[in-house]
Amino acid sequence: TKTDAWTADRDHLLHPYTDFSTFREEGSQVIESASGMHVIDSEGNKLLDGIGGLWCVNIGHGRKEMAETIAEQVMKMQYYNPFGHSTNVPASMLGAKLAELAPGDLNHVYYTCGGSTANDAAIRLVHFYFDQLGQHRKKKIISRANAYHGATYVAASLTGIHGTKMGFDRIGEDFIHHVSAANLYEKPDGWSDADYCDYLVREFDARIQQLGPDNVAAFIAEPIMGAGGVLVAPDGYHRRMWEVCQKYDMLYIADEVVTAFGRLGEWFASDALYDYQPDIMVCAKGLSSGYIPLGATLLSTRVYDVIAQPQCEGGVLSMGLTYFGHPVACAAALKNIEIMERENILEHVREVGPYLQESAKSLMNLPIVGDVRGSHLMLGVDLVKDKGTKEAIGDGVGEKIFQGCLKRGVIVRPVGDRMIVSPPLIISKEECDEIVAAISGAIKDYLADEGA
Ligand code: PLP
């Protein structure tokens, strides 16, 4: 059944990451409603949302309380200019709440419309910071291969996933540089995790030396690389990379767009799980659980104090988004955080997350599963041709497994040769089993079709 929405979508929308050669035939699956852990499409199929919308619907779908909060704020004051000395109640109160939850002295907030704009803001603030200090050459940023930092031009240039750059020029070949991802699955044979960690830290240090420490301003990294393959770094990696940043007077930007707000059982992962204190922390997604777009770049007091010095021309930070501190989005985020606190969602993730990881390990028994990895409610499953060589399976197999899961009423996300799972944080253990069973069943169907 092709609804009007199906046709209108096919004729008018430019979908991200969509193969346009098949799109005119196949169109899109129209999702019409959503509640709790499930979404329902226009054909009436009820599907278990194994990807939390897109790593973001942390408190689950369709919460009435969220709708009421949003409606109330719209009726009270839906929008007013946030520039200069004007503010609104939800933006201010959310700022205080974020300062309370964030580790250390990450007490200052620059609001944006999502993760990409928050990363762009982070880079501009880093540049502004060093300008304020009179270090005008200290502008280069080091990111990592396979990282995902967003889709605006700077964020896409920080991104290290090759495919996301196809057909686009890159900004700042001279100011954005990439070092290796921390990919334990592909570490050289015979190396221990500690050897590999030493190698990555040495590579980073050498790159800074090569670029010149006076030119390198910051390092940006996700605590666990998400879209790049749910890559969990070796023990001590982040702390040691942070120490290198300290040594060269660089700022450490933690991109916690996916990892913050409970996905790893903590408000923020950097300090709580990996023992380092970023100078700048970027969040979005779970901040408002996707009910309304919102991003935030948090700054430490050390960085803020420099940025807030009235040294620049006119003494102002001339970087403003119309929707900075949007009152409706900030009210939604405050309610989202209140729900997470009231329902002890972080504690729930600490229980159900390890269960999902353990239960998913059974997938390793399948001949095309090379690796199963992750932490808490971030899970990645690598599909390979051969477990020995680890060669990726290719041939659109990820898409076939995705379709096989859909047939079983479960949504997972194929990213190339990887299946990614990132469900709402309210998931039950039974629903974790359902996701693992769907992936397993879909892989077995594929193997049967191939006569394997
Ligand atoms: N950073 C990370 C780690 C992400 O995973 C994403 C989106 O998936 C972004 C930034 C970009 O966020 P947005 O799509 O809200 O602009």
TrEMBL record:
Pfam families: Aminotran_3. Its cofactor is pyridoxal 5'-phosphate. It comes from the Bacteria. Keywords: Aminotransferase, Pyridoxal phosphate, Transferase. PROSITE patterns: AA_TRANSFER_CLASS_3 (PS00600). InterPro entries: Aminotrans_3, Aminotrans_3_PPA_site, PyrdxlP-dep_Trfase, PyrdxlP-dep_Trfase_major, PyrdxlP-dep_Trfase_small. The keyword Repressor does not apply. Transmembrane segments: none annotated. GO terms for molecular function: transaminase activity. The keyword Oxidoreductase does not apply. Belongs to the class-III pyridoxal-phosphate-dependent aminotransferase family. PANTHER family: AMINOTRANSFERASE (PTHR43094), AMINOTRANSFERASE CLASS-III (PTHR43094:SF1). This is Aminotransferase. The lineage of its organism: Bacteria, Pseudomonadati, Pseudomonadota, Alphaproteobacteria, Rhodobacterales.
